[in-house]
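User: Please fill in residues for this 521-position structure.
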């Protein structure tokens, strides 16, 4: 009887053996995996449940986007030469590099360094029988529209996994690196300290929308990352704790499923989930950002370079339209604008896996500021004339009739326009090849005497250091002070509180108004 009972127990436990995940099971150079990602609708799913011989069923997940994870030869990452030069390896570059790294992959979620654009972030690893270690990051830092490659070595490598991986394994490792951008002329020191704890807390079977895996290990990874950014004026520390649940199958070189989230008041809140899948026809979703976020026009070069970052989903090809008639198909291009103002940028993406192809596009305004107001479109209006505020050297003017479909007014090509009749007018201005048009301004003439008002009212001293004096036979009823953009900034003759520059003071009397250009020293 005892022998029968023992035999039944043995039969009942057939297939309940736990797997061991070896370093040889992990990804190798040339491995590619299509990962389906879910960012919404996962907050009500409990991904924390675990145990021995546990059955996880997440077959109801609905994919929203896909990406390809590739494991590459570090020699082809584009950062080998930079790394060797940074570390002083000139004649022995190949040997030193190959001794340090044997795997590389592009990081989807990169690091943020103040407002600087960091692109093409590639993690460089060493995979051996004992561990997978992240030892170096390579990236491109965009400065003034130029992508500068740089590398940063971990002082202590970030040990991502230890091998062999078995149920109930628990271990903690610490990694850190320091990035001193002062060497690139940027007064920023960026340091990061990483504490990574891996807990292989379960084993059993897993069901995803793509497949069923009969033998998996479940790992909980807790990463506490302390980052510090030191600038010339401040020190900015940040701490972030991320929790990741990963399911490993020995037949796959990466986790067959991962869920990333945060611990909020003792509760795990998932932010994204991903699983191995096959390519699907998904609706493309276009979006982009750019750096610098507030680009300023450079008067020395008469241009400004802006780098664009494509953060779209579900696409195979891209096309950028910067308004010059020439499409650009780079994923993250740098474009040089030669005029300030508002530029409408269009990004179009295409999912070519679908039949027919699916497209999506987005148009966003990129505002190139004019810090000194040299390209202002402001116009001042008084009883006798309209005056374009822009007086930048080489500027040409053409006044137009807004009431007549913006028709050019013959012969009116001066900075000042004195209409012969009431109406609505604007001016087209061209400076250094940049053409723009002002808003339309309403002109209503007063009596003939107002044409001589300019001779009747005087302001002095001009230039001034602050307080203006007025000489007038007229009673001044209103004082208005405008900046070069046409914005009213004051209502008195005291300019002491305003910075040095050009201002326009409008004086109004019973018979009309006159505007005087004032230089504040």
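Assistant: Residues filled in for all 521 positions:
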């Amino acid at each position: 009887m005892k022998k029968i009972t023992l035999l039944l127990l043995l039969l009942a436990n057939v297939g309940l053996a736990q797997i061991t995940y070896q370093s040889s099971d992990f990804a190798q150079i040339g491995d590619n995996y299509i990962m389906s990602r879910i960012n919404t609708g996962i907050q009500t799913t409990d991904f924390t449940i675990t145990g021995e011989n546990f059955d996880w069923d997440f077959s109801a997940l609905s994919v929203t986007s896909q990406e390809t994870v590739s494991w590459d030869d570090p020699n082809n990452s584009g950062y080998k030469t930079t790394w060797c030069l940074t570390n002083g390896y000139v004649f022995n570059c190949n040997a030193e590099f190959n001794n340090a790294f044997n795997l590389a992959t592009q990081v989807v979620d990169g690091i943020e360094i103040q407002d600087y654009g960091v692109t093409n972030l590639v993690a460089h690893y060493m995979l051996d029988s004992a561990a997978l270690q992240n030892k170096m990051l390579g990236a491109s830092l965009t400065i003034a529209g130029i992508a500068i490659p740089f590398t940063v070595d971990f002082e202590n490598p970030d040990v991502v996994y230890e091998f062999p991986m078995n149920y109930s394994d628990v271990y903690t490792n610490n990694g850190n690196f320091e990035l001193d951008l002062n060497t690139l002329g940027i007064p920023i020191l960026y340091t990061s300290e990483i504490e990574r704890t891996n807990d292989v807390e379960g084993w059993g079977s897993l069901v995803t929308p793509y497949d069923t895996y009969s033998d998996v290990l479940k790992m909980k990874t807790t990463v506490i990352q302390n980052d510090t950014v030191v600038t010339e004026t401040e020190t900015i520390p940040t701490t972030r704790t991320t929790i990741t649940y990963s399911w490993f199958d020995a037949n796959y070189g990466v986790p067959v499923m991962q869920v990333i989230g945060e611990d909020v008041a003792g509760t795990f809140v998932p932010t994204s989930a991903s699983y191995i899948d096959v390519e699907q026809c998904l609706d493309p979703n276009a979006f982009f950002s750019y750096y610098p976020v507030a680009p300023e026009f450079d008067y020395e070069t008469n241009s400004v370079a802006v780098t664009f970052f494509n953060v779209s989903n579900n696409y195979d090809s891209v096309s950028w339209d910067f308004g010059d008639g020439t499409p650009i198909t780079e994923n993250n291009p740098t474009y040089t604008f030669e005029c300030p103002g508002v530029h409408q940028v269009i990004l179009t993406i295409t999912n070519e896996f679908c039949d027919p192809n699916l497209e999506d596009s987005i148009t966003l305004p990129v505002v190139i500021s004019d810090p000194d107001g040299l390209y202002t479109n402001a116009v001042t209006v008084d009883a006798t004339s309209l005056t374009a505020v822009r007086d930048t050297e080489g500027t040409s003017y053409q006044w137009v009739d807004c009431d007549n479909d913006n028709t050019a007014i013959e012969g009116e090509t001066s900075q000042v326009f004195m209409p012969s009749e009431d109406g609505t007018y604007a001016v087209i201005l061209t400076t250094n090849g940049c053409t723009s048009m002002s808003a339309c301004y309403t002109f209503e003439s007063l009596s003939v005497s107002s044409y001589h008002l300019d001779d009747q009212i005087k302001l002095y001293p001009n230039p001034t250091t602050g307080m203006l004096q007025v000489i007038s036979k007229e009673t001044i009823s209103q004082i208005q002070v405008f900046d070069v953009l046409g914005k009213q900034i004051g209502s008195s003759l005291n300019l002491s509180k305003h910075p040095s520059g050009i201002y326009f003071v409008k004086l109004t009397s019973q018979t009309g108004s006159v505007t005087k250009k004032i230089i504040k020293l």
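For context: The longest helix spans residues 2-12.
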